[in-house]
């Protein structure tokens, strides 16, 4: 694996979509495993407490919140903290990506805004489609704080969610589709 590939995977699997031209890092037609299309689809009705899509949406949004600030925590806490919102392979990718960023004296800044367009449920697996706004987030120099990159406003994201044995939904895969969404 090349360093460029690892950096692209780190950025794409991190939360800073579009920072390294996401389409060059994880295009839809790349060798990156694509989320399994659900066999049963459900529309995204208004959330109710009995609606599983509500807990899926909340878990997805929590993933981005945690991932956006985890680099401020001690490295020894990354795995355990991220495991509350992510499952493998995304958990592994995120922790490895954080390590690469730290080695290069790069930190994350800002926050992304999820604009979920659909949630499709298939048993203990769900697919979330998002038109994420990452325009207020990116990577910065760890010493100066000066931004090196900035995300894009309309970034298509497909995330696979997995329900754990504890009943909690976690992000298990994130794919940035490249281009822009509407």
TrEMBL record:
Residues 39-55 have a biased composition (Low complexity). Keywords: Signal. Residues 1-22 form the signal peptide. Residues 28-56 are annotated as: Disordered. The keyword Signal applies. This is Uncharacterized protein. The lineage of its organism: Bacteria, Bacillati, Actinomycetota, Actinomycetes, Pseudonocardiales.
């Amino acid at each position: 694996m090349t360093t460029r590939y690892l950096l692209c995977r780190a950025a794409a699997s991190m939360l800073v979509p579009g920072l390294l031209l996401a389409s060059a890092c994880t295009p839809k037609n790349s060798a990156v495993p694509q989320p399994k299309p659900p066999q049963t689809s459900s529309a995204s009705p208004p959330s109710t407490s009995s609606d599983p899509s509500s807990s899926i949406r909340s878990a997805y949004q929590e993933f981005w919140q945690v991932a956006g600030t985890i680099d401020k925590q001690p490295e020894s806490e990354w795995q355990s903290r991220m495991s509350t919102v992510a499952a493998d392979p995304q958990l592994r990718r995120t922790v490895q990506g954080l390590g690469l960023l730290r080695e290069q004296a790069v930190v994350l800044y800002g926050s992304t805004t999820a604009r979920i367009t659909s949630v499709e449920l298939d048993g203990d697996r769900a697919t979330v489609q998002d038109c994420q706004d990452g325009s207020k987030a990116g990577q910065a120099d760890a010493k100066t704080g000066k931004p090196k990159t900035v995300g894009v406003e309309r970034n298509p994201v497909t995330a696979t969610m997995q329900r754990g044995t504890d009943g909690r939904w976690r992000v298990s895969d994130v794919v940035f589709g490249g281009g822009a969404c509407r």
